[in-house]
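haha ok so turns out i had the wrong file open the whole time. this is the CORRECT one, sorry everyone. sequence first:
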Amino acid sequence: MLYGHPAVREAAVIGVTDPYRGETVKAVVSLKPGATATAADLDAHCRAKMAAYKRPQQIEIVEELPKTVTGKILRRMLR
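then structure:
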């Protein structure tokens, strides 16, 4: 769903610890060159298209996602 936003280049979704739920959803996003978007913009995009329990509770915008030599996103490094 995050890839549907016009400013998103890459996105990864991971689980992080939450004191209330035990674990919650966090999205780590990198933006296209020259594009601008805030975490609030991406959250509004997700709110319009996703159910509340599927929506990321935290959104972090990074310069680039860590990848392997073959180009796969390293989710373990994002945690």
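DSSP finds two helices and three strands in the chain.
again sry for the mixup
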